[in-house]
Batch of 2 targets.
Target 1
Amino acid sequence: MSTITEPARALPITGRYDVAVVGGGIAGVAAALAAARNGARTVLLERSFGLGGLATLGNVVMYLPLCDGHGRQVMGGLAEELLRRSVHELRRPERQMQFVPVPSCWDAGGDQAARREHRLEAAFNPFSFQIEMEVLCAEAGVELCYDTRLCACLRDGARISHLVVENKDGRTALEVGAVVDASGDADACALAGEPTVSLDTNVIAGWHYLIVDGKLTIQAMSHGFSENADREGSDGPFFSGVKASEVTGQVLATRRWIRERVRGRRERHPESEVHPFALPALPNFRMTRRLDAPFTLQAEHMHTWFDDAIALTGDWRKRGPVWALPYRCLRAERVRNLLTAGRCISSAGRAWDMSRVIGTCAVTGEGAGTAAALAARSHGGDCHALSVPALQEQLRRQRVILDPALVRPVAAAAAAS
Ligand SMILES: Cc1cc2nc3c(=O)[nH]c(=O)nc-3n(C[C@H](O)[C@H](O)[C@H](O)COP(=O)(O)OP(=O)(O)OC[C@H]3O[C@@H](n4cnc5c(N)ncnc54)[C@H](O)[C@@H]3O)c2cc1C
């Protein structure tokens, strides 16, 4: 490929922040809220024009359970606050649109037996949820920058000193204390020179709404994919989310599939009016690129307690499993003031498939945002210098659940008690 050299230019420094969060998906919103509530001057950079990422702009509206399926809540803090906020204006279920409130047994003093049957979950209206997250960010004092894409990370030794961004002001720089990469694609990690892993196993997928005879219906549309994030057992064609041509390729292939399905439906029901509505505004990529930290969460770590755990999570695929999420999976190694959150933490294969869902992205966001704020306050942003017990103490104050007993399998926990 031939090249051209871009002339060097001086960039205006348009802001100075204790914590910069890259990406306004669920993980980024949780990270920014946690950082700002911990007193950090916080900026949230989002390339699009809404908060929630795949959950809202991608129409992936199922907030999967925060409990273990045996009636025990394993995620609290911001994961629960966002869950409840996502449906707080919903007065009754709207099954057709799949707006489903949190079961009342999970209210304070609710029926314990019912909690084994009805899980702590909900399904939300993606547009209402976007607006609610904007309100939360404004209340917390997060400075929100839409239409702003991270383009480069400038390093000063082992730390990022400035983020270079592009928006309507052109190309500018932000001076930063600590950075949370919640881009879903580990963009900040890759741009800062941190080791990453990328996969080209994404399939055609695009959750969208149809209007059928005047009624909105959600279409949870995806080709089959593998829990191991590999091609075996998945339906091609396959796409990487970090190559420009394949990003567009996935979007176009998905829209062709939607068009064919709408045409088929019209042929089967010629009396019906069927129209696509609210196509995903973000490509529905499950796994693109992630941090490759010295320690990566793997399938065998299910039911394992880690002394540096920053949260627990259940497993959306089945009742029973509980996982602890160690701080090591969020923390960059070479760049000391960089953490990850959400679907780009260091988690692989079946563990990654478990950790990439909305509630789990929220708990890693809260962990990363809190750690970044504490590191910026006391250690010049150095996330390796941070005391993990102090971080855990602060997270517990924020109602994050960090109980080693919950990580044991239910039968073992019952025998021990
Ligand atoms: C088809 C499909 C179905 C799914 N079903 C479910 C489900 O039923 N329930 C569930 O809980 N989860 C589901 N998931 C997974 C879940 O939705 C996502 O993994 C999760 O929402 C990811 O959150 P995140 O914040 O880590 O990343 P994202 O949601 O990807 O957010 C990243 C944000 O960063 C922004 N960004 C990216 N790069 C930059 C940059 N360089 N500069 C500035 N901004 C940037 C993006 O615009 C985006 O807003 C599904 C995923 C897919 C694809």
Note: The mean pLDDT is 96.
Target 2
Amino acid sequence: MSFDEIIDRRGTISSKWDRIEALYGIPPAEGIAMWTADSDYPTAPCVIEAVHKAADFGIFGYTFYEESYLGAIQWWMQARHGWRIEQDWILTCQGLGNAIQLCLQAFSAPGERVAYFTPVYHEFRVKTEKAGRVPLELPMVRDGDSYVLDLDDAAARITPDTRILIFCAPQNPSGRIWTREEMAAVAAFAERHDLILVSDEVHCDLLFPGQRHVPMDIAAPEMRHRTVTLNSTSKTFNLAGMKTGNMIVPDPDLRGALADLLRKLDYMAACLALPMVKAAYSPEGAAWVDAQMEYLEGNRRIFDEAINRIPGVWSMPLQATYLPWVDFSGTGMTPEEVAQRIHGKARIAVPMGAQFGTGGETFVRFNIATPRAVVAEAVARMQDAFSDLQ
Ligand SMILES: Cc1ncc(COP(=O)(O)O)c(C=O)c1O
């Protein structure tokens, strides 16, 4: 099995491929789906083997979080991120979208504010609004090829009824990896404003060669009393549809509040998810992730080279994740015209930057976790759709 193999996902109840007509008006037969953050290649062979074995066993009864499952998560955090966690810090939930909602429910009340730096994963806003809480944007600042945080500006925006700061590390979109000092500064900011810090680290395994992610708990161990770290196999291993993830919570009071909510909601992981996560968080899984990142490095190179050749268009250099963040401001076009050319002419389904909040207005987010030939086809279509600018 190779990352190069093109697998037709149309007609497989794939949200990414089977909804592009409904969401973007793009006929599936002609479209390229590069919107939602899942990958177009199969997960690691060790994960597929584990689910085959569980399926062949044929009994799908009740399960529990036993030692070897928790141990695999513990092993992964230590081996990949140098982070020593205790098994009883781990709370399994239904993916990290669910984890964000659980944190909102546990640590804030309706009408209170939830802050996050923008541009960011649009679901921070959506989940906050769905919960009846009020989003509070803290705009990041463009600094050369990347973003930086302006904590003075952020401090001026925080209100007395702000309860939670959701921090995306590494950042989706932009692929920015925060340094240990930046992570520590964010934790100190949360302390100064008495905020619960939800560190969403779902993209932390998808690091381009030479990059390193520092978990919030390592950057700011003294802030454990206010920190919840979110982690999952969903992006790393393309298991988003298995709907499983973990909240890692050293503080017993914070953990108790989340555990109580999980109990009240009667949540327990699906029995097939557990062997899959266990198989993923293994040395074989780690080797597969390394191979995936090498492949994505090649995709990133051809994507950036071709996109940056279009006058006025610029792809922010990714440090992590497979989600290029592309600025069209240099074309002088309105977002509507950019959308018309990408969706209407190039037939590529991608989200426009405005949905990621303030600072995203002139951007478009792509997804290059797909065979290289698909990336090559997409960039050729982009060059064609903007050929009048050449
Ligand atoms: C930053 C971030 N958090 C959470 C999620 C959702 O994760 P899950 O599929 O585990 O619910 C995503 C998905 O794109 C994401 O990018």
Note: The CA atoms of residues 3 and 371 lie 6 Å apart.
